[in-house]
Sequence to fold (405 residues):
Amino acid sequence: MNYIKNKLFIDKFSVDKIIKKFGTPSYCYSYDELKKNVLNFKKNFNKINPLICFSVKSNNNIKILNELSKFGLGADVVSKGELLAALKAKINPNKIVFSGVGKTYDEIDFAIKNKILLINTESLSEILSILKIAKKKQKRVNIGLRLNPNVDAKTIKEITTGKISNKFGLTETEVIKIINQYKKSKYLNIKCLSVHIGSQITNHVPYLKMLKALQNVIDKSKFYFEYIDVGGGMGINYNNSRQILNYKKYSDKISKFVKKNKVKIIFEPGRSIIGNTGYLLAKIIYIKDTTKIRFIIIDAGMNDLMRPALYKAYHRIIPTKKNRNKIFKLHDFVGPICETTDKFLTVKSYQKLKEGDNLVILDVGAYGKVLSSNYNLRENSKEVLIKKSKIFQIKKRQKIEDIIQ
Fold:
């Protein structure tokens, strides 16, 4: 993405022309950026040759998933719907892991039927449900045990998952007890020790604490796990100033861990693969000036991008046409939804804008479209993909009539 003669381009496509053809609000993804992120991730961990299972909850577009499958990626899913999407996108079932605390009987049955790599379990009750289905089917089911390591990822509290106060995973004591009880089971094959401590992590230290917690379980249980699933959570640079994860330090430490324990590592990245590939294209409907604040009201709302309202997440907003006329006044970029929290960004000054101008909200590839809704009975935005000098629509915009029906 860059400006050419003060006009914004994404992969050599004029953003204004994309908007003219596809309208607003629309999600636009860059295949080139996606490819770069995948190859970068593989390069950072090439010493250990991990199984990379893309986190489908971060972006579930079938076309995107299919492109990732062509790079050899698997999938981390948390529902039957996500599993169906991964299978439809031609992701190898033997590269799919099923996570989540609330898997239903039907979801477990479907996962077993499709012979996925493993089901990461998060409670004894869930294990008993799997055991019941496995006995009925007379099959031995591969499972993982998700450890809650009580490690604070030092990120947004709403997306921290590895503390004892979070609903996820089993304690060290519970994991060891389950191993001792079911290690010789005819129907359960404990194949993996799993962990995931949170999202948008930009410091390697929490990961080192996580590895230490995993090592404690391995040492105390004296059990051999074929796989260690270390989750994902690697952060991206949303505001051009935040610290970025030191992949080298993490990679060096995890390489030693692999060598010591002779295991295969599973990663579940989402944001670090897809986050910066996505752009939300929007148009200014109205500009409303008050004494202290200039409200820039756009046609994208919190129903299109929930992260700022849900997490107070920061996303940069840039114009498709750049000028040097700066207005030194507080600017609130807001949507049309009837909620005060329908606000994307507040800045102290911004270039001069006018009604009808186009804007781009950056880094929305992860947890953007997937968190969208029909609140206020608004249609979901369409999605387009730029690939090899072509631009494709990969998801149609809904019609109000279909939503109402």
Q: What stands out?
A: Confidence is low (pLDDT under 50) at residues 156-163. The CA atoms of residues 193 and 228 lie 5 Å apart. The chain is about 30% helix and 25% strand.
